[in-house]
Give the backbone structure.
Amino acid sequence: MASKFQNRLVGTIVLVAIGVIVLPDILDGQKKHFQEDLASIPIKPELKQDQASFEVLEPEEDTSALPDSPVQVTVDSQPEPPVEPKTPTKSVTKQPQEAPKPLPVEVKEVPERNDYQDSGWIIQLMALKNADNAKTLVEDLQKRGYQAHTKLENGFTRVIIGPDISKSKLERQITELEKITGAQGRLLKFKPLNP
């Protein structure tokens, strides 16, 4: 016979099995099942009666007539007399033409004429070895309202503010730029012909 422990163990297993199987259905309530309605695709689409119908016309015949016989081309059998070149009345011997001599080229040094010596000023803010850093700085200064540019010179990228005709305005900007960038800029004359 089975011992009391075995009976209790079997009873516990049966109760747990019933709880696992039956309780979720009882506690879930009513389940709603969704089923998509599938429509079958017809092999041949149905034709609608209200579609437009077109009338096929018979071809028309062209009334122009072609010649009955093939076209024949006749060529004169007499050759044309050759055209003789005109000869001058005097006998001229042809001499080989000499190659034209190149014209002499003179290079003249033009002195720099800058009638606007005091017309503009720039601030040379800094010279950076890394061009990407200089471009980033220029974009930041342009966002802040400064007229900033870069100039590549001797392997360095110079950050320049200006040009401007007001020297006092640029002097005020030097102090503002020093607060922003931490670099002391230099005020230089701007030469429009040789910036």
